[in-house]
Every structure is written in structure tokens, then in C-alpha cells.
Amino acid sequence: MKADKDILQLKYSSVIKVIANKLQITLREAMTIFYNSSIYDEMREGISDMHCRSDIYLADDIILENNKLT
Q1: 3-state secondary structure string, the chain?
Q2: What is the arithmetic mean of pLDDT over 36-57?
Q3: How far apart are the first and last CA of the chain?
Q4: Radius of gyration for the chain, computed over Cα atoms and rounded to the nearest angstrom
Q5: Among 12, 19, 33, 53, which has the highest number of CB atoms less than 10 A from its own CB?
Q6: Can you tell me the distance from the alpha carbon of 47 to that of 11, in angstroms, rounded to the nearest whole number?
Q7: Spatial separation of the C-alpha atoms in residues 50 and 34, rounded to whole Å
Q8: CA dist., res. 63 & res. 55, Å (int)
Q9: Are 31 and 16 in contact (CB under 8 A)?
Q10: Tally of structural domains, the chain
Q11: Domain range holding 54?
């Protein structure tokens, strides 16, 4: 199922805020992490209904992915 683009934009911003809070970084840094993640790609493409998962779950997955890459 593909989510509405407006809903996805709201979801993106919520997840970015959670990432910033968890890592105690700026929103700009959190945006970089988010938009370079495979989860963002999956959400954008409508794969696995990732947008249906909680903001905290998605943020945690993105943080784990980012830690593996760095």
C-alpha cells in the first residue's frame, strides 16, 4: 500500500525529530542520516508498509543502520 505523499512527509519529519532527540544532534544532521537510510528508500517506494511502523521503531532502525555504516 502506498501512503499519501502528505502523510509521508509528516511521518518523515516525526522520525527525523526522534533521531535528533535520541542522538542529541541537530535536525539537519538527523535529516542527513534519515535521507541516506535504506528505510527512507523503502518508505518512499512503499515497500513493506514501513510508514505504518512507529516513529520510535523506525528511528531506532535507522540509527542502527547508520551505526553499522560508520
Answers
A1: CCCCHHHHHHHHHHHHHHHHHHHCCCHHHHHHHHHCCHHHHHHHHCHHHHHHCCHHHHHHHHHHHHHHHC
A2: 90
A3: 32
A4: 11
A5: 19
A6: 15
A7: 13
A8: 12
A9: yes
A10: 1
A11: 5-69
Contact criterion met (CB below 8 Å) for 20 and 63: no
For residue 19, the one-letter residue type is I
The alpha carbon torsion through 14, 21, 33, 44 (nearest 10 deg) reads: -10
55, 12 in Cβ contact below 8 A? no
> pLDDT digits over 4-34, tens only?
888 899 999 999 999 999 999 999 999 999 9
Q: Please calculate the CA angle 42-48-53 and round it to the nearest 5 degrees.
A: 90
| Integer Cα distance of 59 and 21 in angstroms | 10
